[in-house]
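Letters spell out the chain; the tokens describe the backbone. To illustrate:

===
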Amino acid sequence: MAWQSGAVERLRGFPSPDVLLRMLMLHVARGYSLRETVVRAKLANWTDISDVALLKRLHREMLALQLERLQLIDTQIAKLNNLIAQAMKPHQEAVMRLAEVPGLGGGFGTADNRGSRRRSQYIFPGGRSHACWRPRCW
């Protein structure tokens, strides 16, 4: 199953995905150091790798997981932007008028532009506008 799902592409120093999983569980679940994990694996005749090799493998796997998460988030952002665009279609004329308002700009209504401005970028003419610097307070 590890091969089919793509979780394991090559084992390099590990005889099977089971051994890799056991070593990860020793390190993460039991809280053993990398060195202690490697020593226990050698004593159990699982594998003969160094703690540095295990560290590199763990880093590679963690980076791969993070990249998968980022790709998922990018996909979700694209879907949300499409949903927002579809929901805003009936109100396109009002959106175009709002886009002309200084401070809102052309990115009005998209999820990736809301709240992305720094406080120093807002210009207050005075009066009641000093009460709140966040866009949703206007």
